[in-house]
Amino acid sequence: MSAEPYVPDRGTLDDLRAAVHTCRGCDLYRDATQAVFGAGPDTARLVLVGEQPGDREDVEGEPFVGPAGRILDKALAEAGIARDEVYLTNAVKHFKFQRSERGKTRIHKTPGRTEVVACAPWLAAEITRVDPELVVCLGATAAKALHGPKFRITTDRGRVLPAPDGPFAGRDVLATTHPSAVLRARDDRDEVYAGLVADLRVAAA
């Protein structure tokens, strides 16, 4: 499985955004409402990559517009980064979910490695078009999409590292936690949020 046959070799981000809705590179398109492409200026110096669209993103067709997006907005502001100056996207473009027992609620399900690799041509095309100074990976799935499956956020978060050989080679990358981790945290929520802000300040610098 691969999205490569569906990704235009040339064209702008708008051309990619139009083409992504035709993608059948993996099976996630079957249940998702729509593909959710990145958003932001095509000259952004900073690209932020999350895992996948959530429920609200899947419905609205825009990245980071749900609860995690609100946490990210707050963290970016505290780190001195204007959201409208960064490019936001996800490693996987379709929402992967499972139904609750009653079938009414769509519950997030982490994309598998096969799906992340299949979707990589879209992410590579976005980053190539934007050509940022730094890519920030929000969460383990995004970090492994750029660094490979052996990457561990627990040991290398908050550090600017070069991406290894492959479609992202030569890019400077910083990994941090996904803002959804703040929502999931309980007793240590303030600590998790403070870590996210601290890492984003490194990116800003």
UniProtKB/TrEMBL annotation:
UniProt-listed GO biological process terms: DNA repair
GO molecular function annotation: 4 iron, 4 sulfur cluster binding; deaminated base DNA N-glycosylase activity; metal ion binding
InterPro entries, alphabetized: UDG_Type-4/5 (IPR051536), Ura-DNA_glyco_family4 (IPR005273), Uracil-DNA_glycosylase-like (IPR005122), Uracil-DNA_glycosylase-like_sf (IPR036895)
Database matches in SMART domains: UDG (SM00986), UreE_C (SM00987)
Domain Uracil-DNA glycosylase-like stretches: 37-201
Family statement: Belongs to the uracil-DNA glycosylase (UDG) superfamily. Type 4 (UDGa) family.
Protein name: Type-4 uracil-DNA glycosylase
